[in-house]
Amino acid sequence: MLTPFLLTALILTAVGVFGHTIYRRFLLLRAARPEPRFDRFGERLRGVLVYAFGQKKFLSGEQPAGWTHFVIFWGFITVAIRTLTLFGQGYAPHFYLPGLHPDGLGGPYLLLKDTVEGGVIIAVLIALYRWLFAHPRRLFGFAPAEKRLAQQSHWEALVILFFILGLMVTDFLYDGARFALESDPLNLSERRWAFLGSAVASLMQGMEQKALKLLGDLSWWLHIVIILIFLNLLPRSKHFHIITAIPNVFFRKLEPAGALSLMDLEKGETYGTSRIDQFTWKQVLDMYSCTECGRCSSACPATSSGKPLAPRQLLLDLRDYLYDREGEIQQKKIRGQNGGEIGVNIVGQGLISDDVLWACTTCRACEEACPVMIEYVDKIVDMRRHLVQEETRFPGELNRTFRGMETSSNPWGIGPEQRDAWAKDLDIHRLGEHGAAEYLYYVGCAGSFDERSKKTTRAFVKILKKANVSFAILGKEELCNGETARRLGNEYLFQTMAASLIEVLDRYGVKKILTNCPHCFNTLKNEYPQLGGKYEVTHAAELIEKLLREGRITLEGEPPQRITYHDSCYYGRYNQIYDVPREVLGRIQGAQLQEINPHRHEGMCCGAGGGWMWMEEPRDKRVNYLRVQQALETHAETIAVSCPYCMIMMEDGLKAKGMDEKVKAMDVMELVERALK
Ligand code: SF4
Ligand code: SF4
User: Is the CB of residue 300 below 6 angstroms from any atom belonging to ligand 2?
Assistant: First the structure.
């Protein structure tokens, strides 16, 4: 009589408090800015199956952390069924969930449950060892950017691990005590399947009946109390991700990863994000979903080169601030009342410093690493948009870059009449002079103005000519596509430049664009459609691979050489172009490809993206030095790249290390051209 009464009181209290907390969290989501993430239901669901239930990123990442998470995740789901049964047995001792009677499917379920619970205990012990003794840096924070995190006590993780352990142990003790009593035929049927519970019962043989009864009851109550406390810890801790991670994966970004959000410059009342209430509901859901695992910070080149940015710390700072301002947001309920001014400006006022935002190379390594698909680059660029467009505050070096783009349509600020100087002794058609061609070769600013990159441009053109590809260039009419301005938060400049280039492209009826720059490729392919510029954009290696396959060019043998390929972020993580450049390099006889560690989707940025090509990096914090060191460890004679920025960064790094005589950085196109028959 007492048990059902007490149990009901406990459930009502715990569920009531839990419901209230969840409602408060929901109000915060509702108060955030709208964002359309309800399309492509099937694709979203597939992502949930692969990334949430299949735990793909955990399993393909660092071990044993990935496997232990997989086991605990599935253990939780399996044991949840058992826990519901235990709640029911508080009201009726022979309660079983429909279809799970021990004489039916409930038997095999018990076999599965015991196996999984055993696995969870092992996984939790491994996790406890890591937290208590191994202290991996990923969990404890990366100094200096995560100094605050490193100083936090990790009681929360330990409490949760002990709770999970408690749930498993109390379940085994409950079974063991019941089975040892042997007074109930149903217990006997369960015992046949629950092999670990039976083993515990064997250990209890010889105990007094009263003691067994007491132990069984105590274990049952403990199990119930732990789960109800656990339920209420979830929304107040990083373990909120247990509830929010699946929706976060479901509502992940499905547009091309490389397309930044389009800002409405005409309707927008403010530009960019500077207050907590200006984040969208999906960005708030990101804050709820962080598991604090540190995979993002561990992959971040800004963090590893000692800059003040660590993505995890950035997100946690935003989340904590959001919770601090909860009352204020709830009072106003609907964003926009009272001018929508909730809290102070978070950018540059101590919470998120300018340095943190400018440190990002927009490489997306953090997003690639995050197991729950948290998005960073859009948030960071949104805050940069505020700095640049509302406060006109940015690193001084960028004055020249922006001015160059505005007045000369290139970040170097070189006279636009010089744009096709690289082509003066090459017989190349200009669209304006000779009319249509199959492809427009969009050279881009680096390929047109940077001395080193011009060599790559000429090499690529020679290949195109050798293969009789029908192509033309815009020559002096070519304009910068604005990519740099967009990454730097100058959305207004980007949209203005994009509109001008689209006007030129459309005037010539351009349909197919060729490019040998991943930044141009990404912007023309993924971002221009937002502004009405829809073209078929092909990257150089893709075309070369086709030409080789069709036999339109063949490559001769080269002296044997060890080559390592550095993935550019904007071909790789942004556009999943990993294989084609490697296949092209593999066609050069004598080339021995040696992978850098890390490479492909885990590859480290060269340090030039996100506008860093135009900013001054302190010598002791240079990302390219770290990347070149990784490349040198392959003992390759050539570092192959497929991006003009990567080329500049690799050469700079090689020089700094005094290795520029021994190791050369070369574009894939230069290597192909050199090997042409
Ligand atoms: S995009 Fe790259 S540099 Fe920026 S926070 Fe993520 S990992 Fe760090
Ligand atoms: S953002 Fe993702 S990768 Fe980074 S700590 Fe949170 S869950 Fe881990």
Answer: no
Listing DSSP states for 230-270 in one string gives HHHHGGGSGGGHHHHHHHHHHT---S-TT-PPPP-TTT-SS
Ligand that lies nearest to the alpha carbon of residue 313, given by its number in the listed order: 2
Distance (Å, whole) CA 432 – CA 247: 51
User: Following DSSP, what letter does each residue of 131-190 receive, concatenated?
Assistant: IIII--HHHH--TTTTHHHHHS--HHHHHHHHHHHHHHHHHHHHHHHHHHH---HHHHHH
Residue 338 predicted with pLDDT over 50: no
pLDDT above 70 (res 343):
no
Mutate to test the pocket of ligand 1, among 290, 295, 296, 300 (most ligand atoms within 8 A of CB): 300
**Closest by CA position to 600, among listed 624, 580, 578:** 578
Answer whether 478 contacts ligand 2 (Cβ < 6 A).
no
Specify the 3-state DSSP secondary structure of 493: helix
Whether 623 lines ligand 2, by a CB cut-off of 6 Å, is no
Q: What is the mean pLDDT of the chain?
A: 93
Q: Where does 523-622 have alpha helices with state H?
A: 540-549, 572-575, 579-586
CA separation for the pair 573, 601 (Å, rounded): 6
Q: Given this model, what pLDDT does residue 1 score?
A: 62
Nearest to 484 by CA among 375, 400, 603: 400
Token pair for 535? 């073209």
Question: pLDDT tens-digit profile of 21-54?
Answer: 999 999 999 999 999 999 999 999 999 999 999 9
Residue pLDDT, tens place only, 592-632: 999 999 999 999 999 999 999 999 988 888 999 999 999 99
- CA distances, 474 to each of 441, 454, 462, 482 (Å): 8, 16, 17, 16
Burial class of residue 425, CB neighbours in 10 A (0-12, 13-18, 19+): exposed
Confidence of residue 339 (pLDDT cuts 50, 70, 90): very low
Per-residue exposure over 7-23, b if at least 16 CB sit within 10 Å of its own CB, e if not: beebeeebeeebeebee
pTM: 0.94
How far does residue 374's CA lie from ligand 2's centre (Å)?
7
pLDDT digit string, tens, across residues 456-494: 999 999 999 999 999 999 999 999 999 999 999 999 999
Q: Which residue has the tokens 């002791």?
A: 620
Whether ligand 1 lies within 6 angstroms of the CB of 608 is answered as no
